[in-house]
Amino acid sequence: MNYYLLVYGAYLPITVLLTIWVARTLFTNGRTFLVDIFHGNEPLADSVNKLLLTGFYLINVGYATLTLRSTAEVHSYQQTVETLSVKVGTIILILGAMHFFNLYVFYKLRGRARDEARAYDFVLNKPQ
């Protein structure tokens, strides 16, 4: 039996489903931050959100495809599960890192937008 096909057959659907789930979560919940960052400009926030989603898919599916190849010996069900766990675990860690990176970027952008808004308010409300 070709155990590599089992690894590949499980790895790709698991990876794609995890990537879609994380991407949709970021897309849905990140919109609020982007609308705030862009001072209520919803079309701009939605456009940036879609571009971020596209980039997220490209990076993660591309990496998952690159790591599809296995150099480990797989001659049993145990080795199949072990190889699959390493591959899926790596993807989960990368998705988690990208999630926190996105949160960090949103946090920084939101802070910058608030600073700009405060500076703008100060200029408008400056006593004469």
UniProtKB/TrEMBL annotation:
The chain crosses the membrane at residues 6-27, 48-68, 88-107. Keywords: Membrane, Transmembrane, Transmembrane helix. This is Integral membrane protein. It comes from Hymenobacter crusticola. The lineage of its organism: Bacteria, Pseudomonadati, Bacteroidota, Cytophagia, Cytophagales.
